[in-house]
Amino acid sequence: MQLTVKDVSGLLNVSAKTVYRWISERDLPGYRLSGQYRFNRAELLEWATSNRVNVSPRIFQEDQDTAPMSELSDALQAGGVFYRLSGSDKESVLRNVVEHLRLPEEVDRIFLLEMLLAREALESTGIGEGIAIPHARSPIVLHVPKPLVTLCFLERAVDFGGLDGQPVHALFTLISPTVKSHLYLLARIAFALRDGELKSLIQQQGSRDAILAAVRRISISLKHPAALQVAPA
Predict the structure, then answer these.
(1) pLDDT tens figures, 62-82
(2) Could you read off the pLDDT of 35-58 as tens digits, one per residue?
(3) 19: exposed, middle or buried (C-beta count within 10 Å: 0-12, 13-18, 19+)?
């Protein structure tokens, strides 16, 4: 579930008035949707940690943290790899990405797009070398049955405002049913992109089979750390 101002007030042990003040004065991350603010547990915890704000232990409780953890290879197999997506800017690219996501019919794709754009407004998800990882920082609200990672290659590279200034040509989009699986897969995507073979396949827009095989190799190696072999970047 998304957190309301009242929820955040309780978790941070402050008044609702203080929550609103921190949104405007201390960049407390909130999304204004349909005239009301909504917050994500993981983002709230990140903010509280960096700002040295005490939080209630209840912030670690999840209403829906019962889904089994999925490995990156399983999530990418479920989400798919797509090629030659069109788009002339960040918004049009993300709109096309959302249209390609393998989501249940009941998921509100317009709402998801708003969440992705709101996340980009806070900070670009471009991580450098032409790759971005757009993701909604409120994964629970979508009620997807299992995590999905979708890799989309663009027809033309687009400026994403990444730190290295390189336009983005490949996007990993992550959709999860829980904060735990969300953070779990984000960490694995970041690790996988250190792998030289996978990075080369992404730069060359390699075949689906080759990309899935490389990701499967990395996922297996993560299950057996003693045998871990990451191809040099």
Answers:
(1) 544 444 578 999 999 999 999
(2) 789 887 767 876 776 577 887 767
(3) buried
Same domain for 145 and 213?
A: yes
144 contacts 103 by C-beta, under 8 angstroms: yes
Say whether both 199 and 179 belong to one domain: yes
- CA-to-CA dists, residue 63 to 2, 67, 182, angstroms: 11, 11, 15
**Higher-confidence residue: 193 or 225?**
193
**Would you mind telling me the total number of residues written for the chain in this entry?**
233
Residue 67 lies in a domain: no
Residues sharing a CB contact under 8 Å with residue 187, sequence separation 6 or more, in sequence order? none
What's the whole-model pTM score?
Answer: 0.69
Domain shared by 49 and 160, yes or no: no
Claim to verify: residue 101 and residue 212 sit in the same structural domain: yes
SS3 169: strand
Percent of the chain whose predicted confidence (pLDDT) is above 70: 85
Q: In the chain, where do the E strands start and end?
A: 31-33, 36-38, 81-85, 126-128, 131-132, 148-158, 168-175
3 state SS of 155: strand
Q: What is the pLDDT of residues 190-205, one digit of tens each?
A: 888 889 999 999 999 9
Q: Which domain holds residue 12?
A: 5-60
Are both 29 and 79 inside the same structural domain? no
CB 120 within 8 A of CB 80: no
CATH assignment of the domain containing 22? 1.10.1660
- Residues assigned a catalytic role: 135
Q: Based on the domain organization, do 56 and 92 belong to the same domain?
A: no
